[in-house]
Structure formats: C-alpha cells, structure tokens
Amino acid sequence: MSSLPPPPVPPGERPGPPREEPFPFPPRPWGSPARETAAHRARRLVGEAARALSTALSTPTEPGAALLGQAASRWVRLVPHVVALALVASLLPVTVVVLVGDYGVNGGIAGLLATAQTAPLFMAVSRPLQAWWVVFAADVLGAVVMMSGAAAEGRPWPWTPMVVVGYLGLMLGVGLREQRRTLVSVWLVTGAAGFVLELFGGQAGGNAVHLLLFVLSGVVLLITGMLRERGDAQRRLVEQETISEAERSRRTLLEERARIARELHDVVAHHMSVITVQADSAPYRIDGLPEAAREEFASMAASARESLTEMRRMLSVLRSENAEGERAPQPGVDRVPQLVEATIRAGLPVELSLAADLGTVPQAVDLSAYRIVQEGLANVVRHAPGARTRVSVSRSPNLEWLIVLVVNGPPAKPTAPLETSGTGHGLVGMRERVRLTGGMLDTGPLPDGGFRVAARLPLFARLP
C-alpha cells in the first residue's frame, strides 16, 4: 500500500519530526473498566430483583371463590367469614382506645387508622393480596403517626399488639391464596419496612416488635403456603385420575368393540361363504340356465369372495398383535346349559329357565345372548360369590324379541362393588352387544342387595 508524500517544507525552515495527533479520548486509569462492569452488573441485578418484587406484589391470583369455598360442609365454608368478623370486631375498638390512651393520637385520626388496619380483613376472605396493600400502608402510616407522639415512649413500636394480631390473621388468607413468589415478596417487604422504621425511629420504641412480626409472619406464610400447595397437588391428582379413568373407559370400550367385531366376523363370513357356494354351484344345479344368468351368478360369487377378502383385511387391523383367530365355532343359546353347568361346578347355585322352542334366532343375536349370560355369570362369581342366581332365556309374547335375564341375590359375604366402566368386559360388553343388534339393556341393583341384568334382543333385522 503506497503512502502519500510529505507536504513541502517552506523555504527557510528545517523539517522536524512528524507531529503526533492527540487521542480523541483521554486514557482510562487501570482497573476502571472492571469496576464499571461490576457496578453495572450490580445495578442490573438490583433492578431485576426490584422488578420481580413489584411484579409479584402487583399480580394477585385471580379472585374466585372465598377461602375454603370448595369445602363440602357449609360450616367449613363459613369459617373464614367468622374469623374475619371476630378479628375486626375485637381489634377495631381496642386499636382506637390504645392509640388514643397510650400513644396520644387524635381521636379522629385513631379511628381512621384503626378502620384502615382492620376493616380490610373482610376483603381478605376473597382478595387477600389487595387487602394486604391497604393494611400494610395503614400499619406503616400508623407507625409514623405514633413515632411523632411523646406518649409513644416505652410502648411497643413500630407495630402495636393489635397490628401484630391482625397482620397474622391477614397472612393466613395471603398464604392460602397466593403463589410462592408472592408470599416471599410479602414477607421480605414486611421485614424491610419494620427494619427501616426501627432504624430511623428507634428511639421511640427500643424493642424488637418488628423482628417478632417478621418471624411470626414467615412461619404463618410457610405453613399456609405448604397447605395450599398440598391442596393444589391433590386437586391436580384428582383431575389426572379423572382423565385417566376416562381414557381407560374409552380404551376398554374400543377393545370390547374390536373383540365383538372379531367374533361377528365368523357369523358374517359364514353367510358370505354360503352365498359364494350357491352362486358357484347354481350353473350345475339348475338345468338349462341361460348364459346371462351364468354370468350373473359368477359375478355374485366374485363379489362375495372380494367381500370376504376385505373383511379379513379389516379384521387384521382390529386384531391385536400376536393374536390368532379363534378356530372353534361361535357359541349360541343352545350352549347356555353347558355354561350354567360349569358355573354350578364352580360353586355358584344357578337356576336355568330355557324356553323349549325359541324358533329361528339370528346368529348375531344368538352369539350376543350367549355372551350376555356368560358375562353376567362371570360378574356374579367375581362380585357376589355364593349368591343364588337365576338365568332365563325366552321369547316375548309377540315373538319379536329374545329376552335374556340374569338375576342374582345378595352375596354371601361383602365384596367390591360392580364395575360399570372398569377394565373388564362386564357391562361394557353387554351394552355394546345389545346396541349392535338394536336391542335394549336394563341393569341395576335390587332392593335386597342383588343385581339384575335384562336384555331384549330383536329376532328380526333391526337397525341399531
């Protein structure tokens, strides 16, 4: 990089050394940047702490129900109101008398201060932080007023005993409603105010009332804050359990529907197979069949086979992993006697009433009736062991419905209550089967302690 030539020297002058330009800024002493950085960091931390403190004290919890307003007992809900009324009724007149008689405060000023220090306790039942602002300002103002009186010598200062009692009552409401950072902020502001007042007016009291209030308010806030957080945790746990119960019920319902769909697959597949065989064998069974009819039967057989393929594909989606299809035929009403005999051998006294002639029962209804009896007896064994049970399967008088009835008496010994939406099949499976066939289900406890399951299933095709 080329440099510019030096300027010409006037005649008669000798060239001298190049002139140095002065620094644009004066040099800083050693160590000053570090000191400025530390001071800046300290100011920043103090500013952030002040902003956090003001935010915590200016953002109260959303006002809602009164303290203990969620309690089931009416008397428990009235406790905060009774406590606030008792504090105001006892502290207000005593504060006026003490300020006038012991501290020499004017009667009107004493009445205003006493009202401001005690009346907001009513508001603390639902808005404790707003009430704290009013009471705290009134307590500080009262300390300033008492400090200027000559009668304050030798008396408790800056807080009177009435102020301590009312303030601790207020801390109960603040601790039960506000968040942890707000409680810490209230506690620190309380201690700072007492320390500052004692520092600038210590000659008026000469005692440690500010330390007493600082310690007691911290203890009250700690205990009530722990109780509030414990209550919040319990409420969240109950909400989570409710959500989990709803999800478990929904999963049980979906699993039951998938199980019913897998069972009904055999019923539908049987009918489709019959259609396929009839369509394939029609040209050989019927002589002189026209060519158009032969093609129609071949198309029907192809459609039936395609439907069976689609059903098997759908069933593979519904089937759980590592689950295999059932190879045994689906049971029906004709196997209810065998089911009852097995239950009797298990030690449960069961009486069976099965109609001699049930007529033609659709396969879906036949399977559903058997499963309802099976699940009803399983519930009796599980929840009412030893109870006398009666099973009845019959047709309605108009021959349009299949009536399935499972009634058991009181259990021989106390057991767990019947699950209506738990993890077992039970009533969930019964409802789904009845809904699938377009029938009706009636379940419920009996006056003697037993239980009744009554299902009415259509014997003719009905939409669910």
From TrEMBL:
Reaction catalysed by this enzyme: ATP + protein L-histidine = ADP + protein N-phospho-L-histidine
TM stretches of this protein: 78-101, 107-125, 132-151, 157-176, 183-202, 208-227
GO molecular function: ATP binding; phosphorelay sensor kinase activity; protein dimerization activity
Keyword Repressor attributed: no
Region (Disordered): 1-38
Signal peptide residues on this chain, from the entry's feature table: none
Keyword presence, Transmembrane: yes
GO annotations of cellular component type: membrane
SUPFAM superfamilies: ATPase domain of HSP90 chaperone/DNA topoisomerase II/histidine kinase (SSF55874)
InterPro entries reported in the protein's UniProt record: HATPase_C_sf (IPR036890), HATPase_dom (IPR003594), Sensor_HK_TwoCompSys (IPR050482), Sig_transdc_His_kin_sub3_dim/P (IPR011712)
EC number per UniProt: 2.7.13.3
Compositional bias of kind Pro residues: 1-15
Residue stretches making up the Signal transduction histidine kinase subgroup 3 dimerisation and phosphoacceptor domain: 256-321
Histidine kinase/HSP90-like ATPase domain residues: 368-459
Alphabetically ordered keywords of this record: ATP-binding, Kinase, Membrane, Nucleotide-binding, Phosphoprotein, Transferase, Transmembrane, Transmembrane helix, Two-component regulatory system
Gene3D superfamilies in alphabetical order: 1.20.5.1930, Histidine kinase-like ATPase, C-terminal domain (3.30.565.10)
Name of the protein: histidine kinase
Source organism (scientific name): Streptomyces fradiae ATCC 10745 = DSM 40063
